[in-house]
Amino acid sequence: xxxxxxxxxxxxxxxxxxxxxxxxxxxxxxxxxxxxxxxxxxxxxxxxxxxxxxxxxxxxxxxx
Length: 64
Fold this sequence. Notes:
The protein is mainly beta. Helix content is 14%, strand content 42%. Strands 1-2-3-4-5 form a five-stranded antiparallel β-sheet, with no helix packed on it. A hairpin with a 5-residue loop joins strand 3 and strand 4. The two termini are 20 Å apart. The model has no long low-confidence stretch (mean pLDDT 80).
């Protein structure tokens, strides 16, 4: 993901997205309060779980 060029993702549902160019899916999991608690990335059969960035990192990215 880090050294790869950007991909376009398309919605499969409100929390699931897929890429047409490569075999990649992204699924967001929400906690009881409705906040995203984890991101599951499946790329060519390899699944990885990612925790969301903390609020300061999200805020910095939104400024760009």
